[in-house]
Design goal:
Blueprint: H1 2-14, H2 19-22, E1 27-33, H3 52-59, E2 62-64, E3 67-68, H4 74-83, H5 87-90, H6 107-113, E4 117-122, E5 136-138, H7 151-156, E6 164-169, H8 201-230, E7 237-243, H9 258-261, E8 266-268, E9 277-279, E10 283-284, H10 288-296, H11 310-314, E11 324-328, E12 337-341, E13 345-350, H12 361-364, H13 367-377, E14 396-400, H14 418-435
Parallel strand pairs: 1-6, 1-7, 2-9, 3-10, 4-5, 4-6
Antiparallel strand pairs: 2-8, 7-8, 11-12, 12-13, 13-14
Length: about 450
């Protein structure tokens, strides 16, 4: 708390730029999808999902091909983004009550104290103490807007005399899904079913509805771009588009496989980023806080645990980090996992091996998971689809993410990969020590039934 107070005092005294300089400071717009997998859009090669505006954004900026989240759960992932700290370091690691502890410093406050107008429009998550960090909070708009209905209003009402930071957060493509979300819905034949899900009609229908919400989100991304152009703000605005975690399907959301923590990441900043460029280097969403501060000419907080990615904007071949790290804690159910990801391998350490890899409650209640339960009882799931019903889980996993992108072949016990296993294990242990991570002394009871998704009754 003392460090946070002192940081704000210093900024208030020394970092407010002269009014003549305000116009030179970039506006910053962060757009966050809700539960969208990294490759579920045309930018990353999906042949059928309709996302023309995301493709336009990428054509005008840079596509990052190895961007990762620190967690695959909504609230802790967003807490990590806004504080520039790993979830366990924020005190908000668990998906519980959507809290961000009041003593955590956010980059939004640093921008605001340096002269930025700050606003949030859409999904307010985590809720507790978050809204006090912004100058203004907008709602979600009409029900059929997917939470993006007041994004344009937030841009239009930003003061003209100062730069702005906007946190634009959608509800799409979070469950629950409804038909006819977009004028031309996706068809079952448009769907690409990952190998860890059964390729049956009802799963395709579920995924098609998920695709529809991604297309609705894409529409509002287009409105943001058009509004910035209309107001002549586009040339001086850094836009970054990301997701908060993977798709809400089994073996995706809440996991620390690529399907859970790899995120779409598109950045556009005219004059600073070459149009149509790509970056293969590792970046983490914990890096956004120091990057936004650097772009705004604001001194970083000592509390930040990420690094600035701004050097990649001008030279996407320059590595800013060798590893990225992710974690999975309690989310509806008990769990504790950590991962260390390099460009070529993903190493996962699981502490609670006695419980299966269950999806979150909303995905458990989905028609996809209930169909998987039915097929499992009939013995009709293959070896890659039985993960949610089998224990024990391996304590260590190692995947070649280049040659095995769905992470189906665990190499942890393969003698040829022992060097990589030991290297990633050692680096993860170092990160655990550096960040003060620890395993809870007591395991927390589940709040939802693992096979039905229903909330469990609490005992007095």
């Amino acid at each position: 708390m003392l460090l946070r107070f002192l940081a704000l005092i210093v900024l208030a005294v020394s970092c407010v730029p002269a009014s003549a300089e305000e116009a030179k400071r970039p506006n910053v717009v962060l757009i966050i999808a809700d539960d969208m997998a990294w490759n579920d859009c045309s930018v990353y090669g999906h042949p059928h999902i309709k996302t023309p505006h995301l493709s336009l954004l990428a054509s005008q900026g840079m596509r990052f091909d190895n961007a990762y989240l620190t967690c695959s759960s909504c609230s802790p992932s967003r807490s990590s983004i806004i504080t520039g700290r790993y979830p366990h370091s924020t005190g908000g690691a668990h998906q519980l009550h959507n809290d961000l502890p009041a003593d955590q410093l956010t980059f939004v406050e640093l921008l605001r104290e340096s002269g930025y107008h700050t606003a949030l429009a859409g999904k307010l998550h985590p809720r507790k103490t978050t809204e006090t960090r912004f100058d203004k909070i907008y709602g979600t708009g009409a029900k059929d807007s997917g939470g993006a209905g007041e994004w344009v209003k937030a841009i239009e009402e930003s003061p003209k005399e100062k730069p702005f930071f906007l946190w634009l957060a959608s509800f799409d493509p979070h469950r629950a899904y409804q038909p006819n979300t977009i004028p031309e819905p996706h068809k079952n034949s448009d769907v690409i079913v990952p190998p860890y899900l059964p390729d049956v009609p009802i799963v395709r229908e579920d995924l098609a509805l998920y695709y529809d919400e991604i297309s609705r989100l894409d529409h509002y991304v287009g409105e943001v771009m058009a509004t910035l152009e209309r107001l002549q703000q586009a040339e001086n605005t850094l836009i970054i588009f990301i997701s908060d975690n993977g798709r809400p399907f089994p073996r995706c959301k809440t996991t620390i496989y690529n399907s859970g923590v790899k995120t779409p990441f598109i950045a556009r900043w005219p004059g600073h980023i070459k149009p149509g460029s790509t970056c293969e280097q590792l970046v983490s969403t914990v890096d956004l806080a120091p990057s936004f501060c650097k772009a705004a000419g604001v001194e970083n907080s000592e509390t930040f645990q990420g690094v600035s990615i701004l050097p990649l904007f001008s030279d996407p071949t320059t590595a800013v980090r060798e590893y990225v790290f992710a974690e999975h804690n309690w989310h509806d159910y008990d769990d504790h996992q950590r991962s260390c990801h390099s460009l070529y391998f993903n190493y996962i350490k699981t502490e609670y091996t006695d419980i299966p890899q269950m999806p979150p409650a909303d995905a458990v209640k989905s028609v996809t998971f209930q169909k998987m339960r039915e097929l499992h009882e009939k013995g009709e799931l293959n070896e890659h689809q039985r993960f949610a019903f089998e224990t024990p889980r391996p304590g260590e996993e190692l995947y070649d993410v280049v040659n095995d992108p769905h992470e189906l072949n665990n190499l942890a016990n393969d003698p040829k990969y022992q060097g990589q296993l030991e290297k990633h294990r050692a680096r993860l242990e170092q990160w655990v020590e550096e960040t003060g991570d620890e395993i809870p002394e007591e395991r927390r009871p589940d709040e939802f039934d693992r096979e039905t998704g229903d909330r469990l009754s609490r005992k007095n």
